[in-house]
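Let's practice the habit of predicting before peeking. Look at the sequence and jot down your guess about where helices and strands might fall. Then scroll down.
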Amino acid sequence: MDIRERISSMRKVNDLSARQLAALAGIAPSTITRIESGAIKPSFDLGSELLAILGEPLTESLTANTDSILAARRALDPGFPVEATAGSEQWIERWARIGLVDDCGRLVPGREADLLFRAATVARLPRRAGRVDFLPSGDWIDVAEPLADSSLEWALTGDSAANFYLPSASDAWPVFYVGDPEAAAQCAGLVRRPVGVFGRCISLIPFDGICEVGRSESDGLWVAARAQVVLDCYGGIGRMREQADFMMGARI
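Done guessing? Here is the structure:
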């Protein structure tokens, strides 16, 4: 797939119009139309920027940049206790162009689901830095219970956490943020999934100073903040986006 096809297909996957993508990149809408039609070929820098905005880096990096998550968490919560970065401020500027945030970088009322979806598509859960996959060993509770009995820091996220907040569909991918992945895996008796083995797994993602912020505890179980769970479901796999939509539609 050439860069023209990648930009066109990923724009549609991200549910963006050519005008919206152009606004995010700060270029004329006709430029996107001409690129996708093959009338012009984007420069390396422009092509790289467009694909980065769409969550598909030109280098096919497996590591997601969490600047968009930081930007979204700060836009939703003015008191979010993590300082902005140059990267997160850039996302705020982009989102302001398409009406997701106001001039002060605060969420525009009624656009929460759109904002979280946009942030998640460029920081997908499968691409998080340091993620380690393990062979499935029961349900998420089979991992959570030994962690709850330990002194380790952790928080459930993804579709398992979505069901914790609002029971709906089945959970297919237990994902945990953990302070110490090696210690957490040992505590829960997890066995690393061999390379080349696919299918259901349990994943541990190390704390990054952003995604675990705001986690809450109930009966000894730690769960990521609701906004983070929605972000992770939007950036997940399979039917996880449907659970994010369900959580957003059920909010009061």
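How did you do? The radius of gyration is 19 Å.
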